[in-house]
Design a protein that fits this description.
Layout (H helix, E strand, L loop, with lengths): L1 H7 L1 H33 L4 E8 L2 H10 L6 H7 L4 E7 L2 H13 L4 E7 L12 E10 L4 E12 H15 L5 H33 L1 H14 L1
Parallel strand pairs: 2-5
Antiparallel strand pairs: 1-2, 3-4, 4-5
Helix pairs in contact: 6-7
The protein binds ligand 0O2.
Amino acid sequence: EFLDMMQENIEPIESRMAYYRCAIMEVETKFKVLNEQFSLQYDRNPIESIKSRTKSMDSILKKVRRKNIPLNLDAIEEQIKDIAGVRVVCSFPEDIYMLADCLLQQDDVTLIERKDYIKNPKESGYRSLHLIIEIPIFLENEKRPMKVEVQLRTIAMDFWASLEHKLRYKKDIPDDEAEQLAIELQECAQISAALDTRMENIRNRMNSQEFREKANAQKNRSV
Ligand code: 0O2
């Protein structure tokens, strides 16, 4: 049935996927601009990397089935909010919130949904900040609002999530072994959260005004 629907709508599906790719370009550019500005102004690059994707037809189909979404394009676009996904990887947790605030302040960005799995990690141990936003893309004769899921995470969160994702999709591990690995991964999630906090503390101490003043005083005394 899904395949029939797809075959009947090949052209609209292709153009809609192109619109999602355009929306991804818009969001990526916004983050690149922010990174550039922070680099000029504060001599630091809050963004380590950006990875983007449009959802595959296969995983759209899985979600359609799982959520019992009616088989028409409008319903699918309305209810699947992560057809376009942009993942922003930062070094430090504070940069995640700073970038999210900067993005949401922009007057062409509308927040649809915010899930903070950093403050409230998932049971698996998963941590990231998820924002579903709507941004316009400008076509020949039309301004079209598009939904994009933005996932913001640290390098440590990303490292963890990519390994855990592999376990999730591996079908050839016996149940008891998979359970053991899931427990081990939960523990690693806690260790990685603690590492993020410690690394951030180190950075903040290195940048602190007090520290700089002490160093200056020392220099002046030795002159
Ligand atoms: P894929 O293959 O990454 O695209 P919703 O989107 O609201 O209908 P849900 O699950 O409530 O469904 O959304 P949520 O919690 O915001 O998570 C959506 C995405 O976050 C997932 O996409 C994953 O990319 C990521 N994610 C969420 N939980 C976990 C987790 O426990 N481990 C890992 N590794 N990633 C997670 P998809 O579409 O499920 O998969």
